[in-house]
Amino acid sequence: MNLLFVSGNIAYVDGAIPAYASDGKNDVQDQTKIVMESIGRILKAAGYDFDDALKVSVFLSDIKHYSAFNEIYGNYWKGDAKPPAREAFEVAALPGSKSGAPVLLEVSLIAGK
């Protein structure tokens, strides 16, 4: 499975969903941390970081999670750097959900050097 595609200086990170809930709460903030840490590792392995991000797409199971997502999401940019342009959508379902363990979000990212 490819998690990243690079064309020229542009890196496209596939949609990332949380593989597990780290503190067992399985809330949107916990899932945001899991997803963003995963994306960070993917970027780093390819020689990029969050400051190289050009655009982010966010898919939420409930748009009411947007504020809670943003509280965590913004912490991944250094110093005074601001997150890149992004779009957020509420979707009916996300892949990977299991009974009692719903996937609440998916994030994809485009980065460039």
Q: Would you kindly provide a written description of the structure presented here, covering whatever features stand out?
A:
The structure is a single chain. By secondary structure, this protein is α+β, with helices and mostly antiparallel strands. It has a single domain, classed as 60s Ribosomal Protein L30, Chain: A (2-Layer Sandwich), CATH 3.30.1330.40. The chain is built from 2 helices and 5 strands, in the order ββαβαββ. Strands 1-2-5-3-4 form a 5-stranded mixed beta sheet, covered by helices on one side. α2 links the parallel β3 and β4. α1 (28-45) packs across α2. It is globular. The model has no long low-confidence stretch (mean pLDDT 90).
Summary tags:
about 110 residues, alpha+beta, 5 strands, about 30% strand
Secondary structure blueprint with pairings:
Elements: E1 4-7, E2 10-16, H1 28-45, E3 53-60, H2 66-73, E4 85-90, E5 105-112
Parallel strand pairs: 3-4
Antiparallel strand pairs: 1-2, 2-5, 3-5
Helix pairs in contact: 1-2
